[in-house]
Automatic annotation (TrEMBL):
Protein name as annotated: Putative gluconeogenesis factor
Keyword match Cytoplasm: yes
Protein family (similarity comment): Belongs to the gluconeogenesis factor family.
Keyword annotations: Cytoplasm
Role according to the record: Required for morphogenesis under gluconeogenic growth conditions.
Region of interest: Disordered: 1-23
Main subcellular localisation: cytoplasm
Matching Pfam families: CofD
């Protein structure tokens, strides 16, 4: 009962004429968590999604048809579906995966729908708008680049027999689960073109939210697209960086919360952050996190945002945290 009242309060606070214009960047389950929260507190929401996925259904479609990997775009659209019967039904449908002994095994319905519209319309942005309208999505979804990207990483200790040596590994799926310590990630091609609508959305925003998500394979890649990185530094929007609840096996295993900030700063030295949001139970050393955040120009906000039933963000608790941050840390211009 308390949760229902919370959601209604947040929705009332973001009514017409008083809603912030928010852009969320990321990919996979982390971006989905952020979008599921943000759609509760704003009516003007844009997701900018990484397009470097090369595993599973997305990887197969990308390899066979030469298209953008649709999986993270699909997940973002599903997260923007409403809580009514229409929204929840379509969310389940586009997330549904076929189970068979043939070539359709593992393909997600939403991936096929998105690719079909891409082929019909020849325009990835327009096609995603059509899917969003079909689902009744509470916001729009944009790819960060109009070309498929490949992730490349320098990893120390990738070979356990050579713990002090570095190797180069390629592919988002490989980087996400790599043994060893990721030192740096790059995109191939090195200077990919950004989707103009994504750049404009960042420039026009009141707030930009980065994270949570796979740090090297979903969060940092946005900072490696030159036009998007420039927009993130030039925008008048305030910037929120949302930390993960725990290090991820593989790419950030053993990372402290402050280490996440340090590697982000190393990849985007010109980027400043206004607020770092972290779950209060995931920060064992508040002083070190404060110091790392200060080097980015940010203050730290701790809140209870983890779901009680597992290591994931609770959308209503995360929505309440974002709502509080948006109100406490001021506005740049009136909400549209």
């Amino acid at each position: 009962m308390i949760r229902t009242r919370t959601v209604r309060r947040l929705r009332r606070s973001s009514g017409s004429g008083s809603t912030p214009k928010v852009v969320a960047l990321g990919g996979g389950h982390g971006l989905s968590a952020s979008l599921a929260a943000l759609r509760r507190i704003t009516q003007d929401l844009t997701a900018v999604v990484t397009v470097a996925d090369d595993g599973g259904s997305s990887g197969r479609l990308r390899s066979e048809l030469g298209v953008l990997p649709p999986g993270d775009l699909r997940k973002a659209l599903a997260a923007l579906c409403g809580d009514d019967e229409w929204g929840q039904t379509w969310s389940r449908v586009i997330q549904h995966r076929f189970t068979s002994k043939g070539e359709m095994h593992g393909h997600a319905v939403g991936n096929l729908l998105i690719v079909a519209l891409w082929e019909q319309l020849g325009d990835p942005v327009a096609a995603l708008e059509w899917v969003g309208r079909l689902l009744g999505a509470h916001g729009r979804v944009l790819p960060m680049s109009a070309v498929p990207l490949e992730l490349e990483a320098t990893v120390r200790g990738h070979d356990p027999a050579r713990p002090d040596e570095t190797d180069t590994v390629r592919g988002q799926a490989t980087v996400a689960l790599t043994p060893g310590e990721v030192q740096e990630v790059r995109l191939l091609p090195h200077d990919p073109p950004a989707v103009p609508e994504a750049v404009q959305a960042v420039l026009d925003a009141d707030w930009v939210v980065l994270g949570p998500g796979s740090w090297f394979s979903s969060v940092i890649p946005h900072l490696l697209v030159p036009e998007l990185a420039e927009a993130l530094t030039e925008t008048r929007a305030r910037r929120v960086l949302t930390l993960n609840l725990a290090p991820q096996p593989g790419e950030t295993e053993g990372f402290s919360p402050q280490r996440h900030l340090e590697v982000l700063a190393r990849h985007a030295p010109k980027l400043t952050i206004d607020v770092v949001l972290a779950d209060e139970a995931a920060v064992p050393d508040r002083v070190s996190l404060d110091e790392a955040a200060e080097r980015l120009g940010a203050s730290v906000e701790l809140a209870k945002v983890a779901a009680p039933d597992g290591p994931r963000h609770d959308p209503e608790l995360l929505a309440a945290a974002y709502d509080r941050i948006f109100r406490m840390h001021g506005r740049i211009g009136p909400w549209r």
